[in-house]
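Annotators were shown the component list below and the corresponding predicted structure, then asked to write short factual statements about the assembly.
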Amino acid sequence: MQAAAPKLVVDPKNRMNDLPGRNWLQFQKSWFVYSASSINDFVQFFTKIEYPDGRRGTAYLWSLEKLAPALDDTSKERLLTDDRHAVFPLDYAFFDAVPAQAEPSGSFSIDALAKHIEEVAARLRNNMYFTVAIRNSRIDSQPPAAWHLSKILARHFLLKDEKIGCLETLESCVENAPVPGWQPDDSIIYFLNFRKEIRDEQPAVYPASAPGQLDKKSVEGDGFATGPFRESWFVHRPPRRSKDVILHPAKFPEDLIAKYIRTFTKEQEWVFDPMAGTGSSLIAALDCDRRACGIELNPDFVALANKRVEDTHTWKLVEGDSKSLASYDDLPEFYDYCITSPPYWDMLRMRGAETQKKRKDQGLQRWYSDDERDLGNIDDYESFIAELRDIYAVVAKRLRPGRYLTIIVKNVKKKGVIYPLAWDLTFALQDFLVFKGEQFWCQDDQRLAPFGYRYSWVSNTFHHYCLTFQKL
Ligand SMILES: C[S@@+](CC[C@H](N)C(=O)[O-])C[C@H]1O[C@@H](n2cnc3c(N)ncnc32)[C@H](O)[C@@H]1O
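Structure shown to annotators:
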């Protein structure tokens, strides 16, 4: 059943659309439960029925024939087309690549898709948007499709926030036999949003280069293939944080981590976290009857973590720099699983972030430390990725062969530019780890903020990537 179309408001100050504030706010959430009628939300967010100069809003839908049955009357009031040779300039374009991806493997080409999109997007008015709906399927040794396409398109268009479309029923468009070992299910569609801007040159920061191929490495079955936690998206509401651990700016919830630990390890095996913070992953490991080891740079967090355990027999937490892992003799020679979350670049040092203001008002610590070895203090993005890569290279050396590593991270937004940290990190780790797929931790317990209201699309990023890799 289609949701009722929003009541439109003619507001001359609203340059983007005719949506009332409530609907604007809803669209700003970076993930949503997908249905065929979701197309209406995109058309109605990114176009006005009539612009101040009197023209009617025009949208290109690829392919209109397939999308038409789901369009409501409000969307149909836009001038819709899927003729790429039509003469009028466009206010919006939407490309549904999912059916093309479901064609027999070999007939879908990212390069051909990018060419088609570039051709149509050239007809967009300046500062107008387009969206591509695409799965991240990895066919043979191809790089993840959604990330790869983004990199190609971002050479000419400004990559804005992605929205993650979460499918309630499982569908797979990957025809290949499933790879051995663990992999997530396939119930996600990326909705990638771009803006056409006048540019003299390629963007200075991101992305200068297209990703390389992901190596096609074979992985032996390992007994975890039927592990229970394969959902590619899930909503998780962490319990309220206790008074102690709230001192840490970005702690993750033990009950979520426990699901991963149960999927990837057996009792008494070693779980490692090279950036342990308040020790959440290590506590989760103990709760699951595993042994826990880790490293944390900030002595205050180490003290906090140690305070949280009674029996330290199965617990080894070193205060130090995870880059020096090889020199810490206290740690086991090999561990069986690693789950961790790095600083999200230097985002905690960004002024103006809503949560940062609240923490300041409450007199709480806003960043991890002033230590120069702290990765959260590196301000150059490329150097940050390179440092992180080096740390994970050291970490991977002591991960038992065939075993897994999960990294929880977010794509970040700084001064209006998206830095796809999750994607770039994955490409950086492919020399020594095999990427097994992403899962999304979706948050629905945060308050939406009306960023960019009436003039621009800026989402509230309420999804974290949980990236899982395997060591060969
Ligand atoms: C996202 S937080 C981890 C939070 C942790 N998972 C928890 O639940 O408490 C990242 C942590 O990495 C630590 N860190 C940053 N650079 C480090 C380094 N070079 N070596 C070890 N730890 C580091 C920070 O002090 C911070 O506690």
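Statements collected:
1. The two ends are 47 Å apart (CA to CA).
2. The chain has two domains: 21-195, 233-470.
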